[in-house]
Amino acid sequence: MNNQTLNLGFLASRNGSSMQAILGAVASGALQAEPRLAVSNNRQAPALAHAAAAGVPTLHIPTRSDPEAADRALTAAMVEAGVNLVILSGYLRRLGPVFLQRFHGRVLNIHPGPLPEFGGEGMYGRRVHEAVIAAGATASAAVIHVVDGEYDHGPEVARLIVPLEPGETAESLESRITALEPSFYLRTLQDIARGERAFPAV
After folding, report:
1. Cα–Cα distance measured from residue 107 to residue 30, given in angstroms and rounded to the nearest whole number
2. Rounded distance, CA 195 to CA 4, Å?
3. Are 66 and 41 spatial neighbours (Cβ–Cβ below 8 Å)?
4. Could you give phi then psi for residue 75, rounded to 5 degrees?
5. How is the chain split among helix, strand and coil, in percent rounded to 5?
6. At 85, phi and psi to the nearest 5?
7. Within its chain, how far is the Cα of 14 from the centroid?
8. Entry pTM
9. What are phi and psi of 9, to 5 degrees?
């Protein structure tokens, strides 16, 4: 992976904040990569408009009515676009088996809490931060990991420790980690592109 160009595919359901930061870095030359495709399950996702404005091809693939067909369509679209690394940026749908097999070891997600303690099915958004606070933890984290067939389960690629502040609430912790995620995602990709971070792709 370190000896080839990062041909990026993006999956986003809403704003795709991390995707936006990555596209900005590519445009400025701060990240050596080629954005190839942005896909959303939500036709109205602002992420699609942002990607299109950046000159990245976009595609809407609905997932509710026929998940198996969506799985095949998403796989075919990413393959056709020449994608070799898929970036999840707030994608709110579980990936299908066809896609995960074809892109095994080449799908990254960012989780807003320490793994494996605060991951798994149902652990997303503010629920993660509420659980961290309830556990009496002194620090939380944003974790970038490889996506496999289980929620928040694949190998860890990078971790950003976020110490809790006095009087921390789930709302304040969510706000702080959300603000840190795009730049953390970008730095991790820069490390991968430069060959400075081992990437567990197969």
Report:
1. 21
2. 10
3. no
4. -60, -50
5. 35, 20, 45
6. -150, 125
7. 12
8. 0.93
9. -115, 145
In the chain, what are the domains?
6-193 (3.40.50.170)
Tokens encoding 142: 């944003």
Residues 167, 148: Cα–Cα separation, whole Å: 36
Beta-carbon contacts of 161 under 8 Å, excluding residues fewer than 6 positions away, are: 139, 140, 141
For residue 39, give both structure tokens: 């896909």
- CA dist 194 to 30, 38, 62, 123, Å? 11, 23, 35, 32
Query: And the tokens for 125?
Result: 């958004």
**Is there a catalytic annotation at residue 111?**
yes
Predicted pLDDT at 152:
77
Structure tokens at 73: 């369509």
Crossing angle for the helix pair 126-134 and 170-193, to the nearest 10 degrees: 110
The secondary element (H helix, E strand) that includes residue 36 is strand 33-40
Which residue is catalytic, options 50, 60, 104, 111? 111
**Two tokens, residue 189:** 């990709």
Rounded Cα–Cα distance for residues 51 and 10 (Å): 9
What are the per-10-residue average pLDDT scores of the chain (202 residues)?
78 96 97 97 96 98 94 98 96 92 95 93 91 97 92 89 97 97 95 82 43
Rounded Cα distance, 139 and 83, in Å: 35
Per-residue three-class SS string for 61-85: CCCCCCHHHHHHHHHHHHHHCCCCE
